[in-house]
Amino acid sequence: MESNKREFIPLNLAVLTVSDSRTEADDKSGQTLVSLLEKDGHHAADKQIVRDDRYEIRVMVSKWIADPDIQAIVTTGGTGLTGRDGTPEAIAPLFDKVIDGFGEMFRVLSYDLIGTSTLQSRAVAGVANGTFIFCLPGSTGACKDGWTKLISAQLDYRTRPCNLVEIMPRLLEV
């Protein structure tokens, strides 16, 4: 008898904190993401902090999307509306495809927690060179919610009816 059960496939993820003020000592959001992804069985292949500068952000993310050993990237910070918030502008030009549903779902989930303030969120996701990229706000709560309510299930091969892991071998098709 054939089993419908799938085995978990651990992925290598990189975490990027975008901040003009955070250091490793006080980067709670980045540390939370690393802790959550490792708790779920994935590997934190790298974790960095860069200033909220679109070119510094783009350099780091470009390095990771060029690395065949990194399957996904999660960023935290720089998704608001202030003059220094530039994560979406930095990363969107790198996308081969935008995952529109991620930002939409993130704001739906956030609405239940923070009401209309969620309209200020510019959470975004996409795929670049076969690497998934998720850009979350800088708050620790937003990182927890984004990971536990959206990203974790989609980066779990056991999630039915479909998940992002099962399409990974086809991301670079031409």
Would you give an account of this structure?
- With 174 residues, the protein is of the alpha/beta class.
- It has a single domain (12-168), classed as 3-Layer(aba) Sandwich (Molybdenum Cofactor Biosythetic Enzyme, Chain A), CATH 3.40.980.10.
- The protein has helices at 28-39, 54-65, 87-91, 100-114, 140-154, and strands spanning 12-18, 43-50, 72-76, 97-98, 124-128, 131-136.
- The protein has a six-stranded mixed β-sheet, with helices on both faces.
- The chain is globular and about 45 Å long.
- The mean pLDDT is 95.
Task: Tag the structure with descriptive keywords.
174 residues, alpha/beta, Molybdenum Cofactor Biosythetic Enzyme, Chain A, six-stranded mixed beta sheet, 5 helices, 6 strands, 19% strand, MoCF_biosynth_CS, MoaB/Mog_dom, MoaB/Mog-like_dom_sf
Strand order within the widest beta sheet: 2-1-3-6-5-4
Mean pLDDT: 95
Structural class: alpha/beta
Secondary-structure element order, as H and E? Answer: EHEHEHEHEEH
Helix count equals: 5
Percentage of residues in DSSP E strands: 15-25%
Give the C-level CATH assignment.
Alpha Beta
Give the end-to-end Cα distance, rounded to a whole number of Å.
37 Å
